[in-house]
Design a protein that fits this description.
Elements: E1 3-21, E2 24-38, E3 43-48, H1 52-65, H2 73-80, H3 87-90, H4 94-114, H5 118-121, E4 129-137, E5 141-142, E6 145-146, H6 151-165, E7 169-173, H7 179-193, E8 198-202, H8 209-219, E9 226-228, H9 234-241, E10 247-250, H10 255-261, E11 266-269, H11 277-290, E12 293-296, H12 302-313, E13 322-324, E14 345-347, H13 360-373
Parallel strand pairs: 4-7, 4-13, 7-8, 8-9, 9-10, 10-11, 11-12
Antiparallel strand pairs: 1-2, 2-3, 4-14, 5-6
Helix pairs in contact: 1-4, 2-4, 6-7, 7-8, 8-9
Length: about 400
């Protein structure tokens, strides 16, 4: 089997209403759908994390892989990606992230060629129902949907998710520049979801060190499992560790620094950012050796979510629920999506490869939305159009 072409298509996946966070508004996700065509008629599906990857794949990596054997993932990587050890000295990591989207598609092709789900190629499943944490945030309102702007309204939303979907794991953003609002919200959410539900927070590096110290002190009685990026650096998290027993996580990937400083306790990441599934597995293995946890973040199309499902199914070390905004997504590019977690879990697809089916009409619609809207900008101020938001200093 040989690769005959690769196509990368940027798409916009909107949320039912935008949610708010410290320095902006989150209307949805812009991702890149990757299709790998072969001379045997099989098509592999992948997903790259940012719209810039589409140009890199269509103009550079796709042509470089024509004629290659898609089963030989290592040879495909060597044709696309320089030595990643020296990559920081010579440029950004756009080639690695772009190839990561392709690499997921190569695994999909491998599974389809052998007629088995990807998790079996990765060694088999240690679990077949993958845990996710229900998301919450302050949200805008549209047609009677959303509009949660107080601590009590966010808490009521979490209680409703318990009733509708059996959710007992929650994560969300509560920072709008008012530390007291976040503290009140944590208290209200804990009272609404009960003492046994998992509760995590996501700070997006929004707080100064003194404010983060205050917040952590005030919320500690409410059994917060983890606080993601409570301040702007690993060094600040190391200082916060002296005052709080709450664990920390981050999207910033620096395992060496985490080991030296003793923080964060978890990395939260996207597979393509690491260069694909194989490199993510190596990274998770290194985290396991160092006693640092790992889970996946949110905002992918059904292709990216399916890749998460297979990798987590085959990786015993990943035990924490992944982030999840699936109940907020209003569209998808696959026939089976958006996935719908119930009782905190999504079952792993059992078909060959990723086990999902690209829906051409949906892909076209999501791509046209990207053409019309452009890539989603997360950092605009909803109360001041045309300006970027700034947090008040505390």
């Amino acid at each position: 089997m040989k690769i005959t072409g690769i196509k990368a298509t940027p798409v916009n996946i909107p949320l039912e209403v935008p949610f708010l966070f410290g320095v902006g508004t989150y209307p949805g996700d812009t991702k890149v759908v990757v299709e790998i065509f072969t001379d045997e008629g099989l098509v592999g599906l992948g997903e790259a994390p940012s719209p810039e990857c589409a140009r890199v794949i269509n103009d550079r990596l796709g042509p470089a892989l024509v004629g290659h054997d898609p089963i030989d993932i290592q040879a495909c990587e060597r044709a696309c990606v320089p030595d990643i050890q020296v990559m920081p000295n010579t440029g950004d990591n756009s080639l690695l992230r772009s190839f990561g989207g392709i690499e997921i598609g190569l695994w999909d092709l491998r599974g389809k060629a052998f007629g088995v789900p990807i998790y079996k190629l990765l060694g088999g499943a240690v679990r077949k129902h993958i845990p996710f944490a229900e998301y919450f945030s302050f949200r805008q309102e549209r047609a009677g949907i959303g509009g949660e702007r107080t601590a009590e309204e966010v808490a009521a939303y979490c209680a409703r998710m318990q009733d509708e979907y059996g959710s007992t794991a929650f994560e969300g953003k509560l920072q709008l520049g008012d530390p007291s609002l976040e503290i009140r919200s944590v208290k209200a959410i804990r009272e609404a979801i009960g003492p046994d539900a998992l509760l995590r927070l996501d700070g997006n590096m929004s707080w100064s060190l003194p404010t983060a110290r205050r917040i952590l002190r005030e919320i500690e009685p409410y059994d917060v499992r983890n606080y993601e990026d409570p301040a702007a650096s690993f060094e600040h998290m190391a200082k916060l560790r002296q005052h709080s027993s709450i664990s920390f996580s981050t999207h910033t990937i620096d395992l060496g620094k985490a080991v030296r400083l003793g923080v964060p306790d978890f990395f939260v990441s996207n597979l393509a950012v690491h260069g694909g599934m194989l490199r993510t597995l190596r990274f998770v293995a290194a985290c396991e050796k160092m006693g640092i946890g790992f889970w996946t973040f949110s905002g992918e199309t059904g292709i990216g979510i399916a890749a998460y499902l297979h990798l987590i199914a085959a990786t015993q070390w990943i035990t924490e629920p992944g982030q999840c905004i699936l109940h907020w997504q209003t569209d998808d590019v696959i026939e089976e999506g958006p996935f719908c977690p119930r009782r905190n879990t999504v079952p792993v697809p059992q078909g060959p490869g990723l086990g999902v089916t690209l829906a051409p009409a949906r892909l076209k619609r999501c791509h046209e939305r990207f053409i019309q809207e452009g890539a989603y900008d997360f950092f605009r101020d909803p109360d001041a159009p045309g300006r970027y938001r700034r947090l008040p200093l505390h």
